[in-house]
């Protein structure tokens, strides 16, 4: 979690995930300032570190949680992590105790919402999946005994995306969908219903007061017909409003800490879940604003400062080239295999382009990803460099960050230590993290 001095008035309980799977990542001190300027007093960083205690004692980084893995019990993983997650959790806790950090740093496991289910279709019927029930009980008891929280990731967008019959309005906080009535409780949105399904599962198994953190929740802006700035703004503003008003859920009146997913787009993430996976950011890859949000007390989002770019030029399909050229398809395929073309999909921001502009987009995103290097706009004589911005309507032809004019992110902790004025850090560790 990240918090600092001199912040704008933040929304209490709202934090943000800071992802780093980008070909051209923003410099850490720019990201930290972006967080501060926008009132995010906490951030989760997906970062594997070899010596946590050193960064607590030597660098002054205030680490509050260490997370073991990320959604290790996803059904799509099958049994891959069933035997290793709990022992890893125990080992990390033992290392914290040995380092004298157990009171300051808590261990947790971020889980996907598919670890619990409800046979009745109602939150009150919540229980943990039968295939992992005993394992979940071991983990939850361990977390309870060590006064550590359970972390859950909730994605209403994925509920909508996975089920063509899912009521769209139920995905939002101010939707007009028919409510779900569960005894004396009425649910008007899937976030509350999902969270309370977990709470019911905890109550049913003897842990009614275990602390819960929402580790990831958000809405993407591209890569799918339902992923756009309008929908993302609607969802995230509703989320911020309920947190700023101190609104919990019917079963937990106090709102949990919530980590918005995510701060910045990541063009190097796996697209296995879908093309939208690279577009969860509230901000674009360069820290520019996608859409406005009221961050409480009339404060709006502000963009990143001090970002430097490559030359203002683009690689596009040559006006002398023909769309019937036999090399065109392979050239586009080559460009998109090394760069992010997810915005070209059906219903996406650049899905409006004709064949020529479609090729231009692919050529340019490759050219920018390759830092505009000599030879990176050579596609069998099908492309040329232009100074005229080819962007149109919703489709933005990017110019990448100039990494040569920024320090690299390789010494992340050092950058944090010198630029954050005592920030709080949530460190997300892969299974094999050490102290």
Secondary structure topology:
Elements: E1 14-18, H1 28-37, E2 43-46, H2 52-57, E3 62-68, H3 85-98, E4 106-108, E5 110-112, E6 116-118, E7 126-128, H4 133-145, E8 150-153, H5 156-162, E9 180-182, E10 185-187, H6 190-204, E11 212-217, H7 229-244, E12 258-260, E13 314-317, H8 328-338, H9 355-369, E14 383-386, H10 412-419, E15 424-429
How would you describe what is shown here?
The protein is of the alpha/beta class. It folds into two domains: 14-306 and 408-429, TIM Barrel; 314-400, Methane Monooxygenase Hydroxylase, Chain G, domain 1 (Up-down Bundle). The protein has helices spanning 28-37, 52-57, 85-98, 133-145, 156-162, 190-204, 229-244, 328-338, 355-369, 412-419; strands at 14-18, 43-46, 62-68, 106-108, 110-112, 116-118, 126-128, 150-153, 180-182, 185-187, 212-217, 258-260, 314-317, 383-386, 424-429. It has a nine-stranded parallel sheet with strand order 4-3-15-2-1-12-11-8-5. Helix 8 (328-338) runs parallel beside helix 9. Residues 1-10 and 408-435 have low confidence and may be disordered.
**Global morphology:** globular
SSE succession: EHEHEHEEEEHEHEEHEHEEHHEHE
**Class from helix and strand fractions:** alpha/beta
Q: Share of helix among residues?
A: 25-40%
Major sheet size, sense and barrel closure? 9 strands, parallel
Name the CATH architecture of the largest domain: Alpha-Beta Barrel
The first-level CATH class of the largest domain is given as: Alpha Beta
Summary of the model, kept short:
The chain is α/β, with parallel strands linked by helices and 435 residues long. Helix content is 26%, strand content 14%.
